[in-house]
Amino acid sequence: MIKLEHIFKWYNIGGTRSFVIKDINLEIEQGDFISIMGPSGSGKSTLLNIIGLLDEPSEGHYYFMGEDVLALKPKKRITLFQSHIGYVFQSYHLIDELTVYENIETPLIYKNLSGKERKAIVGDMLDRFGIVGKKDLFPAQLSGGQQQIVGIARALAASPKLLLADEPTGNLNSKQGEEIMALFKQLNEEGMTIIQVTHSEKNAEYGKRVINLLDGQVK
User: Fold this and answer.
1) CA-CA distance, 214 to 39, in Å (whole number)?
2) Model confidence over 101-127: pLDDT tens digits?
3) Residue 208, SS3 per DSSP
4) Where do the domains of the chain lie?
5) Fold of 31-57+74-218
6) Sheet holding 33-37, edge to edge
7) Confidence (pTM)
8) Residues with Cβ within 8 Å of residue 104, at least 6 apart in sequence
């Protein structure tokens, strides 16, 4: 499903290259559940953003479902992202001007669905995550944990083939965190490919394999 070959990411600082990730080679099969671990600054989120088409490597090749991603025009890349990838961000990235309902509906607007179908899917997500009573609220009216739940519901609404999650339980209490990880495990068993960045050994154990990063390299 995913193949990364010799992926580098650097920034030029004062004429010198400052590397964020160095020479990453990785293959991820459909149905995998990968946990990426490592200390702060090891390049975990950057790697996830490159896989999620939100960032570009400075060098290397990236193939997603057989497509040479870096050779695609930006519009085609956006379509690929919207069609196949769900993303749970550490800092939520909810749209402040939209209600909970509208935030969850957003990824469905890019799919060829009727209003009735969208309504049914959003209703299912509100129900599944126990946030029916919050559907008309705006992100600023929610706690951090509630915003995280809405972000997860939004990422799953479009039934993505690939779910990327950056510290998905970081803002949740332990009970909520366990429920989300159990849900991820169930979705993975149903065929969804999941890649999570986590500091939690406990969360990492839900995955099928762990990739450890240190100073931008796979250990």
Assistant:
1) 7
2) 999 999 998 888 999 999 999 999 999
3) coil
4) 31-57+74-218
5) Rossmann fold (3.40.50)
6) 85-88, 162-166, 193-197, 33-37, 209-214, 217-218
7) 0.92
8) 122, 125, 126, 150, 153, 154, 157
